[in-house]
Amino acid sequence: MATQTSGGSDFVNNLGKIYGIYTGGFAAFVILLAILEQVGVPDRVIGYLFVFFTLAVYAGIGVLSRTMQVSEYYVAGRRVPAFYNGMATAADWMSGASFVGMAGTLYALGYDGLAFVLGWTGGYVLVAVLVAPYLRKFGAYTVPDFLAARFGGHFARFLGILVLFACSFTYVTAQIYATGIIASRFLGISFEVAVFVGLLGILLCSMLGGMRAVTWTQVAQYIVLIVAYLIPVIILSAQRYGVPIPQIMYGQALQEIAGLERQLVADGLANAETLKPYLQPFTNYNPLNYFGLILCLMIGTASLPHILMRYFTTPSVRDARKSVGWSLLFIFLLYFTAPAYAAFAKLEVYQNVIGTSIDALPNWIYTYGNLGLVKICGADATTMDAIRAACASAGNPDGILGLSELAINNDVIVISMPEIAGLPYVIAGLVAAGGLAAALSTADGLLLAIANALSHDIYYKMVDPHASTARRLTIARILLVLVAVGAAWLASTRPADILSMVAWAFSLAAAGNFPALVLGVWWKRCTTAGAITGIIAGFGITLFYLVMTRYGGMSEWFGVRNISAALFGLPIGVAVMVVVSLFTPEPSKEVQDLVEEMRKPRGSTMMEGGDVVAKPV
Amino acid sequence: MANGTDEAWWSKTKGLMVTCLIIWAIFGFVIHFFVNALDRIVILGFPLGYYMAAQGSLIVFVVLVFWFSGRQDSIDREFGVAEDDY
Predict the structure, then answer these.
(1) Contacting residues of A for B35, CB less than 8 Å apart
(2) Which residue ranges run through the membrane (chain A) (predicted)?
(3) pLDDT at A573 over 60
(4) Which residues of A are less than 8 Å from B64 in CB distance?
(5) CA pair distance B50, B56, nearest whole angstrom
(6) Inter-chain touch B61–A601, beta carbons under 8 Å
(7) Model pLDDT, residue A360
(8) Rounded to a whole number, what is the distance in angstroms from the first to the last CA of chain B?
(9) How far, in Å, are A199, A244, A549, A574 from residue B3 at the CA level?
(10) Could you give the ipTM of this predicted complex?
């Protein structure tokens, strides 16, 4: 590209070396902290060093990647190699909740929790086959931008922005909330202050360099998060089974769990009627909800704007496709390890907690009991006396713990693993740094998606189409800061409702975006009227179902859970889109040519600098 | 625009799309309908039905996406609609 600067291409050509040195430096840093811990530096200081060092590195990358070019700001100049875009997408995708909460969900739900593992990986097949390469060829800066060009006009754009907001804003609030939780736990500062420390980290990464800065920090964050996720469980697997491959060795743990479950029932420590065997399918979700959830998560994945826009940054359509493969591989590394975490934690609980006398509980119970994350006999497990008192009044005088008396917060599973394995504090610090990286990288991506929709789609396209480059970028940055501060303020109020609404994002994105994106590419006959009515119907019904089942007291339709709401919105959206399209005159020759052109990889992008380029005849 | 080569290229592309979606549907859904039957087979401690949902299908998805991107690229090259190598 003509706009390439020599400094920039030096950087892109040396990515392997740069990130190799970075990874080595990070390993050296962890080893240094391990040595400091051995010579007696207090845990609190180790925690501070972890958080501040990693934040400083991300911010440094953000500042070095600052830019004043529109295409650098919105799509990183379209020269992110497939492999690195895959890493960045993996970090963009895996949120604080994936990192900290996924294993806990599997711990709690057993087989049924695997719906999340399947749904959040299988969706990438749809991204690669149906959507991403075509959007890359089209060359839009945002998803609403594509909808506007394909479905002629501001109304489609406006609907795209609405869907984007609905699925991104609650999500970014939850990420900032997670940053605050992790930072406050490891820095020992109040949650409200920690939220704004996290906000600072997010803004430094994204504000100056837009997509370019976010891309290169996300790659750095992926490396930290995957190392932090794998190390504790690899060590635990080596300790228990002598082989450092947890993903294979947890098969043995599964068998031991099944054996212990039978034992617990035989010993009267668990009730045969209420015990949900870990490996038995459909104990928590019935098959309709299980498969419905998989479908909604898959299609939602293929429709989330902050994920799709990552594939706008590759040098070619070919790279966009390959990049989806890399993304999925990097995501897979974490998701196929999560069930191992869950199984090892389950085994630890069945062996060393249930059936144990209150005098002999392992230490980690108290560590997390004091944080309010472990409850025994209905009370926080803060001290041995507190537990004994609670259990005595709950009618358990013998002091032997039964299964129903223990309640563990999902987040404990990953965080407590270093302690369960008896590892030094530095590994716990590493896990915290990983969780922070996961939350920050997702927050960056979401924030950029929201701010770009505001600055590019609303300001530049709808308010002032003649704005100069400098003005567009200034507006983009101001809006980014405003959205970030708004989300941080909301997070600091600990909004329980917002946090539980995050799971809605997938259904809302699936019903709102997927039909229009896929039919827009694959069906030339899809008309503007069809797309608009389809989006309104699909998105509207999904939103109606979500709100009414949660707040309106409406009972579930066919017993479908709230989280799989797109099961209704999606087919209705598609049906309306098809029927209305068939009843309206077919799209103009111009639009049909646009679609044909978009399908072919050959040739340059069809939009440059955010405007459709007139096609040379 | 719509000449013979383009049509042949697009129908091959559509064929690949359908193939990929069938494989996706089999490993995303169909195989898990039979989880109880598969669970009777146990390998290295893993009941097979559990294993497929926790790892097996995921591995298929990863391989499928890489295979798809290679196949689509060779279709594009065959009909001359691929991008120039750089």
Answers:
(1) 111, 281
(2) 21-39, 45-65, 86-108, 114-135, 155-174, 186-210, 222-241, 290-312, 324-344, 425-454, 475-492, 498-522, 529-548, 563-583
(3) yes
(4) 125
(5) 9
(6) no
(7) 85
(8) 26
(9) 54, 57, 52, 30
(10) 0.95
